[in-house]
Design goal:
mainly alpha, 3 helices, single chain
Length: about 120
């Protein structure tokens, strides 16, 4: 029983390791078993990974001050409000038209007729 488990583990490990190294094996296969005839050739030098740990150079420009940020935010808000047709916050909106008073007897506006 122990021997079967050991053989199964050994074969499983061999299969897993063989799967990791398939690239070089394909190159060594005969032409009729390997890559198709129209497959592109491998590059002479392997591709290089991007330099992920290299830091970008220092910025030539200076970040905006808080006053500049506040001014820019106000300008953008004003442009947005003009495009959406909103009144600017500095001006008061036109007062809404007042509703006519309701008739005290039937709860209807003064101009409406009651059904008899």
């Amino acid at each position: 029983m122990f021997e079967r488990t050991l053989w199964a583990a050994t074969l499983g490990l061999a299969a897993a390791l063989a799967g990791c190294s398939a690239g070089p094996l394909i190159d060594k296969l005969p032409a009729d078993m390997g890559l198709p005839a129209n497959a592109p050739a491998r590059p002479e030098t392997p591709y290089e990974y991007p330099a992920v740990h290299d830091m970008p150079p220092a910025r030539a420009s200076v970040p905006m001050t808080e006053e500049e940020q506040v001014r820019l935010e106000k300008e953008l808000a004003n442009v947005r409000d003009r495009q959406e047709g909103r009144p600017s916050p500095g001006k008061k909106a036109a007062p809404a038209a007042k509703k006519p008073p309701k008739d005290a007897e039937n709860g209807q506006p003064a101009g409406a007729k009651a059904n008899p």
